[in-house]
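Quick one:
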Amino acid sequence: MAKLIGIAVVVLIAGVLAFVATRPDTFLTTRTRQLDASPDAVYALINNFSLWRQWSPYENVDPNMEREYSGPAAGVGARYAYKGNRNIGVGRMEILESKPGERIDIRLEFIEPFAAVNQANFVLEPSGKGTRVTWNMSGPNTFMGKGMMAFGLMESFIGKQLEKGLTDLETAARAVDSKSTRSAQAEPLTASPAH
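Output:
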């Protein structure tokens, strides 16, 4: 009886491994949200890595995370390296393409706890009085990634992070819009006449 149970377990494990191996070699996770904020404010917060602390779901995972910025402050060529605890790991990002108010494409390189090179892009569309933002993450699927995908964990895990990021991005962008409005209202409407 024990031998039959052992054989059944081996067959079951082999079946699961075979099923996992048939999963796609790449992954794509997408989330879209209508933000009650201007395209300019949204774009500025994504296009400058030093502003990600205001909205990115990854920025507060480790309060002692080390950050290093290089290249231009914003736009194509801007780079960001980070090193954190085991929950955040080590990696770097670089903006590859940046079109004001339209899109930003980013190369993500994970170094630890696992090595991978992925892509992220943000597509911005003016919509009503706000901005429709689509955040995509994609890349090659490791065997572990295929396993997570097979059981819906990849989509759920990454998707929840993207959803939180878009919610916090809206809050941060609304604050930028509000500050801009206050600054504009504080400026004198007409110059004082000279006497």
